[in-house]
Amino acid sequence: MKRTVTLIIATYNWPDALRLCLLSVEAQTQLPNEVIIADDGSGPKTKALVDLFQSTFPVPIKHVWHEDSGFRLAEIRNKAMALANCEYVVQVDGDVFLHPDFIKDHMRAAKPNFLLQGSRVMLGVRYSEKLLMSGIPKFNLFAADTKRLENAIRLPFLSDYLLQRYRNRYPIYFARGANMSFWKEDLYAVNGYNESYQGWGHEDSDLTLRLMNYGVRKAVIKFAAIVYHLHHTETKTPEQESKNKAIMEHTLKQKIHWTENGINKYL
Question: CB–CB of 229/177 below 8 Å?
Answer without folding.
Answer: no
